[in-house]
Amino acid sequence: MRIALLAHLRHPIAPPFAGGLEAYCWHLADGLTARGHEVVLFASGDSDPRFTLDAMIPVHHERSFPGLEHRGDPGLKAHVDAGYAAACDRIAAGGFDIVHNNSLSRLPLERRRTEIVPTVTSLHAPPYDALRWFVHDSPSPGHRITATSAAHLRAWWPDGAPPEACVLHNGIDPEAWPCREDGNGSGVWSGRIARVKGAHHAIAAARRAGLPLTLFGPIEEPDHWRDDIVPLLGGTIRYGGHLAGPALAAEMARASVFLFTPCWDEPFGLAAIEAMACGLPVAGFDRGAAAEVVGEAGCLVPSGDEAALAGAIPEALAIPRGIPRERVLRLFTRDRWLDRCEALYAQLSPSPAPRAEP
């Protein structure tokens, strides 16, 4: 198949990943290419050059419009909309069999576009006003919508999802996240350092429990980092930087427990399954999709309750490392995820579109 993979533009689609959405798009491009598909990645121009790249904007917009995401800035909105509109026009004329839309933009959802090229839209955020109506209006014979968890699907459609919408769990390559027999007794936390990710709660709980803790991830909100995180660092609590996959996997595998602290309705929680693949049980907040993802591999407590989280740490540490690893192998592998993607594509485009003669 010739596949147009439409990405979000806030960050480059390149390692080390800014977050789960960037990792999702990169691994989707990599996995589909490895399976023999012709993939064109529509993303910012500073994304990974190993892919066939169609640059919607020259550089990711966090560089050109720093700190303006979610601020309603008209300049940023016009910049991003222009990039997506032109890309959608190129896709319509490009002989693609399928579009896999991960953009969080309303423009690829328009029926005049999904009627030209069949589209799978994967939602990566909880419902919000700027997109909700367009998503709800978009189901059609040429358009399928996926949510990353059953909890995420219910959030978008509390009264029941349409038949064109389904759950598509994220997946990882377990070989990239190797498991060791024993940990060193420490904890890890990984994710974007932003208030909604709750690293400050993880630090507070670790101190209560006497657990050495290392934080990993990009600093997305400098004021939160400065005001809420830096004053809490020191002693057995440290920041390990923003690491690429192999280095992060090695750090994860040495630890004994993963702290997962979403302060929003986390649609999935990719960092949790990365840690689980390394054999780490999870102590975390029961919010969003956490229970669905973690299952028997951890101990979850009400969101924001630092004392309860501290109490959950020894309970999680008692879970054998084989349990989280086995849960990932059973439910959240990259091959399982890519199989589901290909099945969705085949529903919409059962045979490749004919190519125009040169």
Automatic annotation (TrEMBL):
Domain Glycosyltransferase subfamily 4-like N-terminal: 19-175
Gene Ontology molecular functions: glycosyltransferase activity
Gene3D superfamilies, per the entry: Glycogen Phosphorylase B
Keywords in alphabetical order: Transferase
Any Pfam family the entry gives: Glyco_transf_4
Cross-referenced InterPro entries: Glyco_trans_4-like_N
Keyword match Glycoprotein: no
Protein name (database record): Glycosyltransferase family 4 protein
